[in-house]
Amino acid sequence: MRSFFRSGGRRKLAASAILVTAALAMAGCGNGGATSGATDVKSGPPVDVQASAWSSLEKNANDEGALTIYSSMGQQESEPRLYGAFKKAYPNIKINIVFLGTGDLINRLNQEMSGQVKSADVVMHASPGWFADTYKAGNLAALQISPDNQSAGWDKMLDGNSYATWWGFQYLLGYAKSQPAPPTDLKALLDANPHAKIGLVNPHVAQAVANVYETLRQTYGDGILDQLAASSYTIFNSNSQLSSALAAGSVDYAYPDQVNTTGPLIVKGAPIAQEATQKAQAGANYNVAVIKNAPHPDAAQIWANFVMSKAGQEAIVQDNAPAGTVPTSVPNAVPWKAVNFLDATQWTTDKWNAWISKYWTPRFK
């Protein structure tokens, strides 16, 4: 599992360094007349902002009055606590959300950035490789860290990158309420019910899914894949399809299940439930970053810092119970270090394809 708590990689600026001249000297670029912290520093490593400069940034953000967020985080029936908490803290900043699946969102972002289209202010999705590549290409604004987030240890967690891994989720075991509540261990379920009618997600659709099955294999050995292959399984090409099938009664169990696709169906009254397994915990995490040419750069910095803040971290855990996890200390969160997150540097395309050929294809048709 990858650690996000390595040291180093930050720059400190005194309050006066937020001014245009110093920012140009340290960041190596500017926008020729910007007056706020966010627009002064265009790209590069994260920057610590002192209290007076942060107050000015908040004022400028309120004056901008709007914020466009590109997100692949699942929609919920009621307003997520995260957005409600932000509106309470910053009532003068209007939130506009563009929601797309991660793959579609990345395609749109890449097209807009290549065409110098100013649309997104902030981006949040679950593809860490995209953030790393986009940051290296200089297309993300330098993330400015508020005094409160400095105190919370985010300089260390960022490890010199201007994108924050701010929350993650554990994949869950979904089940129909017509069935007995399953044990919090997938192997125990299959031991007790070897022909369980279970829905699976195709690992061809994402490295994160392959990582789930590999986590099972590392925990229990190859036999767990044999047990899944011997069950009454149905393979689906997305978590949305899997959740719908579970709600419709086409399958009795669902794995790996996501809170943001099944949760809304539970809210609507579907006779299904979810639980977090206690072994072989696998998941994916979300990053947040400010786009370099954001139309509302100060509001974008406020949002990025808010989701990293205590209030934002608590809200996202509540929104994603029982699967939510964050790198800070929040009650009722799944322990961050207990989850085997997708590591994009390890799950290269070659490894992904090789894993499928060796472990999946011989067992599942």
TrEMBL record:
The UniProt record lists the keyword Signal: yes
User: What are the UniProt keywords, alphabetically?
Assistant: Signal
Q: Which Pfam families match?
A: SBP_bac_11
Where is the secretion signal located? 1-27
The protein here is known as: ABC transporter substrate-binding protein
Source species taxonomy = Bacteria, Bacillati, Actinomycetota, Actinomycetes, Micrococcales
